[in-house]
Amino acid sequence: MYSFMGGGLFCAGVGNILLIVSTATDYWMQYRQSSNYMHQGLWRYCMPGKCFPHNDSIAHLDATRALMILSLLACFIGIIIGIMAFIHYSSFDRFDKTFAAGILFFISCFLVFLAMAVYTGVTISYYGKRYGNWRFSWSYIIGWVSVVLTFFSGVFFMCAYRMHECPRSANSH
């Protein structure tokens, strides 16, 4: 049980760090325009030597930002509850912290998956038609890696929950 929770906390910790890096950096997409490479993130776009904030309220960027921030919060709260479960913190006795942490990691995974799907769909349909020389960059890739890590942290915590619950179920009959 503790090895599952330890693996889940490790995956969640790395996933949360990657979510922060992915959300904060400006390399979600790179493109070439008039022989210069430019890149953009969720918060600003950069030309050689200068970066500018996104001044317009672009719906897909707003949605992606909001979903990424909510995912960060869910993952962070899941890590705190997972640590409390790992050290047997005794408040909220009727509240199964292992199960709650697993659910929060799945919620985080779902939210970051939605954020990545929104960004991917709009970017491909918009930039794919207008620019020929563009690509997703490393911040975007890190976002997809965090989807996988938060998913596996949820799986690990659900496995720990099942291992913890199986002896209880056998004793109650």
From TrEMBL:
Compartments where found: Membrane
One Gene Ontology molecular-function label: structural constituent of eye lens
Protein's UniProt name: Lens intrinsic membrane protein 2.1
PANTHER family in UniProt: EPITHELIAL MEMBRANE PROTEIN-RELATED (PTHR10671), LENS INTRINSIC MEMBRANE PROTEIN 2.1-RELATED (PTHR10671:SF25)
Source organism per UniProt: Seriola lalandi dorsalis
Gene Ontology CC: plasma membrane
UniProtKB keywords: Membrane, Transmembrane, Transmembrane helix
Transmembrane annotation, as ranges: 7-29, 66-87, 99-121, 141-161
Family indicated by similarity: Belongs to the PMP-22/EMP/MP20 family.
Membrane topology note: Multi-pass membrane protein
Superkingdom per UniProt: Eukaryota
